[in-house]
Specification:
Blueprint (H helix, E strand, L loop, with lengths): L1 H16 L1 H36 L7 H17 L3 H30 L9 H31 L14 H12 L8 H26 L8 H31 L4 H12 L8 H30 L4
Helix pairs in contact: 2-3, 2-4, 2-10, 4-5, 5-6, 5-7, 7-8, 8-9, 8-10
Length: 308
């Protein structure tokens, strides 16, 4: 009995001494689960968003786009790019939540706060902005593949010689356009992620403060609503940059040229093409993401840190 207690105390000491390592693994795992949950909840609306962004004359409304894609390409067309989307969201969320946790620890020291929940809402939002900038490096190549797959069908057929699945498309870009092209669109992606994640985490944390008496508490529907608020604010503010990003990755323009082209052809409305399916998917998608993230953290804390 004494040996068991001694061995248990030794394990607890090891965990506490290396707590940041375990927390980093926890946050990464939570981000992975959140990314998967978000994609499969809302992928058809993401496909709709990208098509409306890049081919606004052909895809003018959410219903028309969904019905046209389904008729031409079937259910597979609605989930076109879902594998790179999963990879993108898993990579993005894993990096973002890992960075958010570690940046939060630095911010706590800078602001003399004892815990993340004691930080001001503005400090938490800035932590989110920095985490978004980190995620942009993972997100750019995977979103490039996703956008190419989602927009290659114009009449129900892909262009001759262009791959129709994720890995061949990845190889096609590397071999035909060069490895550096995988980072095509990084500048607008960086701007979108930094600006968007400020509101993403800021909105989520604000929602928790309003809905929960204790911000560290986990509640299924309250967490989902808080996550939905964060996601809606994120995309509402960052959407014009996302339009530019999609045009850069699908076409051959620089961000500045793409911005000028969009404005000259469609005016200010051109920067909000496809925002309806984007906002429709933002609330449930980000709600599902944060539910998966928070419950993963809760389970991990109970198993590893013995927190109940």
């Amino acid at each position: 009995h004494y040996f068991i207690q001694s061995n248990l105390r030794s394990k607890i000491m090891v965990i506490n001494e290396n707590r940041w390592i375990f927390e980093s693994f926890r946050d990464t795992l939570a981000g992975i689960n959140g990314g998967i949950a978000a994609v499969y909840t809302t992928q058809p609306l993401d496909t709709t968003k990208v098509k409306m962004q890049t081919f606004p004359n052909q895809y003018s409304s959410v219903i028309r786009t969904l019905s046209t894609v389904f008729k031409q390409e079937g259910i597979r067309g609605l989930y076109a790019g879902s594998i790179p989307a999963v990879l993108a969201n898993v990579g993005e969320s894993a990096v973002a939540f890992l960075a958010y946790g570690r940046i939060s620890e630095v911010m706590q020291k800078l602001t003399n706060c004892k815990s993340h929940d004691q930080m001001s809402l503005l400090s938490q939002a800035f932590c989110g902005a920095f985490s978004g900038s980190c995620a942009s490096f993972i997100l750019t190549p995977t979103e490039l593949v996703k956008c190419r797959l989602q927009t290659q069908y114009l009449s129900g057929r892909a262009a001759a010689g262009v791959p129709t699945s994720p890995f061949p498309m990845f190889v096609y870009i590397v071999t035909k356009e060069g490895p550096l092209q995988l980072m095509k669109g990084w500048t607008p992606t960086l701007l979108r992620e930094t600006w968007g994640y400020f509101y993403f985490f800021g909105g989520y944390e604000a929602g928790k403060r309003v809905l929960l008496s204790d911000p560290s508490e986990v509640s299924l529907w309250k967490t989902a609503i808080s996550g939905g608020i964060g996601g809606t604010l994120c995309w509402g503010f960052a959407y014009p940059i996302d339009i530019v990003k999609s045009h850069v990755q699908v076409g051959n323009n620089t961000p500045i040229k793409a911005t000028k082209e969009i404005y000259s052809q469609y005016g200010i409305k051109g920067f909000f093409r496809g925002i309806t399916p984007c906002l429709l998917r933002a609330f449930p998608g980000c709600g599902a993401l944060f539910v998966a993230v928070d419950y993963t953290k809760l389970a991990f804390n109970r198993v590893v840190f013995k927190e109940y």
